[in-house]
Design goal:
Blueprint (H helix, E strand, L loop, with lengths): L4 E7 L4 H17 L5 E7 L11 E2 H9 L3 H17 L11 E2 L3 H11 L4 H13 L8 H10 L4 H6 L4 H16 L7 E4 L3 E4 L4 H14 L1
Parallel strand pairs: 1-2
Antiparallel strand pairs: 1-5, 3-4, 5-6
Helix pairs in contact: 1-9, 4-5, 4-8, 5-6
Amino acid sequence: MKEKLKIDIVSDVVCPWCTIGYKRLEKAITDLGIQDQVDIEWQPFELNPDMPAEGQNLHEHLAEKYGSTSEQQIASHQHMVAAGEDVDFKFDYFDDMRIVNTLDAHILLDYAKQFGKQTELKMLLTRAFFSDRKDVSDRMALKQILLDAGLNADEALTKLEDEKSRTEVKNAEEFWRQLGVTSVPTIVFNRKSAVTGAQPVDVFKQVLSELIKES
């Protein structure tokens, strides 16, 4: 039996291009009919590891971090909404939208891995944040998302108080940083080659076709 193509997706829950990138990759995999030949694992990357518990208004955050004006932000969000529509994903930007700390979300994604539920939980988290105006750092919101994914929410939430779980996620982030990952999404194939950014579907198809042929 052929070995599966291992795909590591280094990303953050609140990264819009990570969502677009995955949805395009997913379409490429589906179009090529190789769903049973790939193994996807989500790897943690915090865009804002120092974000306080209360979060920060998205407009303020973007102005502070990137120096972007209101006009630039509006144009960027419109572009993102259109890109989302192309892959059947809804981006709902609103005035009081807040960027939040995502460490807890990454701990839960690590927990979901053992049940084969990582991708499902990842998409529920990103949809909650971008489409449903939910705070994905809020424990009650996280509990509902875990339940929606068919996971044991109470067991999963205990991981958030577990120092070992927090350290493991931080160590994983450092591992990818040491390998040179500085932006997300970074999509790594068989831990040998990588593609950064939300590439077009055709680019993913070409990369996947070549790698499947090689294997």
